[in-house]
């Protein structure tokens, strides 16, 4: 079975590897001259591909971001600079011999249903390389083109911008902070990019202001007791609590957790509707930069003047020289017919955020568009494992229903801008990371059974329930089982502490796992009651 994979970024590499695992024949088309997608930095902006600034660091830790059968090297830092994450992707490509299945410098021009699609589910794929177009027939397609290539810059939402005499641009064009030297800078939007750019600008600018309508929850990479945030928050125990507590109590818990580091209201960034679960912003610097006056937080922009801006509920004009619009990205599939994946107002009807809901045959899937609170690499990989088995005819338990209305089944993908355009009706995708992974894993028989492990390997059972839900858990059994999964789970804290314990000899892996013994048996009853 021949499968066309569009894009050789994180999702495309995982898709190619999972196809090979299932005995399929993937061909991965990458329009640029190298793999890596979002994580490959180039000084110049390339049309049709993501643009990265050189200081970007991963927001999720290496143990929670790894592919499930390929841990990061132990000497890699816990949160990875983009160059080292790209290095990891190169090693992954080499280790699993993916390079021979990737066609670089090849653009996918169009993907259309084959005339006999209703019976075969096949697709006509037209590609272009070196100015020459080629048409071929594939049995299935995985779209892994991402959603960070088409900037959303809705200038019509900002009255007066046409008469503003200063400089303005979208965050996609940002590379270095030198252009902010001695300037008064306004950053519109409080997503991860907006905060990163504001922090960098504040080191050289005369003044930096962040404009946000909705505010944001702010997390630090360094969390409780100095551990990575996602290794503390993304556990099976925490997921169980969040999904089973009454909603008011769950909302109180979220508010309590995110306000432990500092009171968001005192810093002017408390989310307007704090009950909504939105993607938090990761920054270790912003609170201290607000405290020291380097960065000021203001509400949404009311209008621009010649050399100034007016904010809502603020009558005074504030002089500015440069505006950076961190208003997110649109996602689209120009190579697909609109009837295949309908995108309207940043919504697309995709079953489990993967399969178009109205196709007669489930032979086309979209990977990597989901934005959960957790690492995207394990999610993209799990999607690819499920999809490749559906294509192979082995994923019957989770095969997508044909021609269903996703809106009625709660599977509508919604990707709002990350910035302070912040139109109220746009909703953040509310998918709990662990629950989503477990759902897809159950489709292919790879979800770990904590109760089953309690009988055969109790220490491992307690570790995967109370400790971080690292991706290796999904290789303990079922299809794609990896012999090294158990060891990878039990040594995950060693790999976290190895790059930080550089002054003293390495001791025991962590005090955190030892706590499992203390609290494990006290909470074990809850695990049994809730079916874990």
Automatic annotation (TrEMBL):
Its EC number is 1.14.13.148, 1.14.13.8. One of its GO terms (molecular function) is flavin adenine dinucleotide binding. GO terms for cellular component: endoplasmic reticulum membrane. The chain crosses the membrane at residues 512-531. It is found in: Endoplasmic reticulum membrane. It is a single-pass membrane protein. This is Flavin-containing monooxygenase 1.
């Amino acid at each position: 079975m021949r499968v066309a994979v569009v894009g050789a970024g994180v999702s495309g590499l995982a898709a190619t590897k999972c196809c090979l695992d299932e005995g399929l024949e993937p061909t991965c088309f990458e329009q640029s001259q190298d793999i890596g997608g979002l994580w490959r930095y180039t000084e110049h902006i390339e049309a049709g591909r993501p643009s990265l600034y050189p200081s970007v660091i991963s927001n999720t830790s290496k143990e929670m971001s790894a592919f499930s059968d390929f841990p990061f090297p132990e000497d890699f830092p816990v949160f990875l600079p983009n160059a080292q994450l790209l290095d990891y992707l190169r090693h992954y490509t080499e280790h699993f011999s993916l390079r021979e299945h990737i066609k670089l410098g090849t653009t996918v021009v169009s993907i259309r249903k084959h005339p006999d699609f209703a019976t075969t589910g096949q697709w006509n794929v037209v590609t272009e390389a070196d100015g020459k177009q080629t048409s071929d027939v594939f049995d299935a397609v995985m779209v892994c083109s991402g959603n960070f290539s088409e900037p959303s810059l809705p200038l019509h939402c900002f009255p007066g911008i046409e008469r503003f005499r200063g400089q303005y641009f979208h965050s996609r064009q940002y590379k270095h902070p030198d252009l902010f030297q001695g300037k008064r800078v306004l950053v519109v939007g409080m997503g991860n990019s907006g905060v990163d750019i504001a922090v960098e600008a504040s080191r050289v600018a005369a003044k930096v202001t962040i404009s946000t309508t909705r505010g944001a929850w702010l997390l630090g990479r360094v969390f409780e007791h100095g551990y990575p945030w996602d290794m503390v928050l993304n556990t099976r125990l925490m997921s169980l609590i969040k999904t089973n507590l009454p909603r008011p109590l769950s909302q109180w818990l979220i508010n309590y957790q995110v306000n432990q580091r500092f009171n968001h209201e005192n810093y002017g960034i408390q989310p307007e509707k704090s009950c909504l679960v939105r993607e938090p912003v990761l920054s270790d610097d912003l609170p201290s930069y607000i405290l020291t006056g380097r960065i000021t937080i203001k509400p949404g922009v009311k209008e621009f003047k010649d050399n100034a801006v007016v904010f809502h509920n603020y009558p005074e004009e504030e002089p500015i020289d440069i505006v950076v619009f961190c208003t997110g990205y649109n996602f689209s599939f120009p190579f697909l017919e609109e009837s295949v994946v309908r995108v309207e107002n940043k919504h697309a009807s995709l079953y489990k955020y993967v399969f178009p809901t109205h196709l007669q045959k489930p032979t086309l899937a979209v990977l990597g568009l989901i934005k959960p609170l957790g690492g995207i690499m394990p999610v993209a990989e799990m999607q690819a494992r499920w999809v490749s088995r559906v294509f192979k005819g082995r994923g019957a338990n989770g095969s997508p229903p044909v021609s269903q209305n996703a809106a009625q089944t709660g599977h509508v993908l919604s990707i709002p801008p990350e910035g302070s355009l912040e139109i109220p009706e746009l909703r953040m995708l509310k998918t709990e990371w662990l629950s989503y992974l477990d759902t897809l894993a159950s489709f292919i028989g790879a979800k770990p059974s904590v109760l089953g492990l309690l009988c055969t390997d109790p220490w491992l059972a307690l570790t995967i329930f109370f400790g971080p839900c690292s991706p290796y858990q999904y290789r303990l059994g079922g299809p794609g089982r990896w012999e090294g999964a158990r060891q990878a789970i039990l040594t995950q804290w060693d790999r976290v502490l190895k790059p930080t314990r550089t002054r003293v000899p390495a001791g025991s892996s962590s005090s955190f796992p030892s706590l499992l013994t203390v609290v494990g048996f006290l909470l074990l009853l809850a695990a049994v009651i809730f079916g874990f």
